[in-house]
Amino acid sequence: MTREQLEARIRSRPHVQTKSPEQLTYSPEFPNLNTVMQNDVDGAWLCYGCGHENPLVHREGEHPFGYLDCGRCGSIFSGKDEPTQVLGHHVLEGAELTPVPSFASDNPVPYGIICPRCGLSHRGQRVAGPSFDKGLIGVSFSGIRCHCGTLSHTSWYRFSVGPSHDWRGDQIRALRRATTRRLERRTRELRVNTDASQPDFMDARE
Ligand SMILES: [Zn+2]
Ligand SMILES: [Zn+2]
Questions:
Q1: Cα–ligand 2 centroid distance for 85 (angstroms)
Q2: Number of structural domains in the chain
Q3: Sign of torsion, CA 129 132 136 139?
Q4: Ligand 2 center from residue 107 Cα (angstroms)
Q5: Average pLDDT over residues 100-114
Q6: Global confidence as pTM
Q7: CA-wise closest residue to 92 among 160, 163, 161, 162
Q8: Most buried by CB count within 10 Å: which residue of 1, 62, 66, 194?
């Protein structure tokens, strides 16, 4: 199966609707704009490198967000990129079997990993049986073979599926927040790099 065929299959899966009380009462900053923009999208991530806005749609099935590689520069989503709330990072790193707060068993597992080679997202698997504290259940991210052939590893980026009401309520504001975070991060890194290069600069001048 080619990537295009896999993407078509992922797109055919039902959209997972997340509703919240805020969604019903939220008053958007630009209500008219909101209705004409993409309403079947749950959020977006801004590429750290090029700033491209990549849409996020949460669908049922084993690939919750499809491919997370930048539509403009091709770089794969990592912790540097800035997502809106639907692509969260509220999950422990490292352990093969990860305790997470209990969720309804008929809901898709709201946790996943991203293949660092091709960017395909994979849903974690609910694991029955392990004895975690009350209110916690186990999700496993191990033994998942990506479409590109790579076997999942504990170092892969893990995500939680968050609410989409920031985007659905007011996507201009949600995007503006992500844009600000991206600029702040880039400014910080620029400053760090400048500081690091300072000694060389000073040496060269002397
Ligand atoms: Zn990019
Ligand atoms: Zn892959």
A1: 24
A2: 1
A3: negative
A4: 25
A5: 92
A6: 0.83
A7: 160
A8: 66
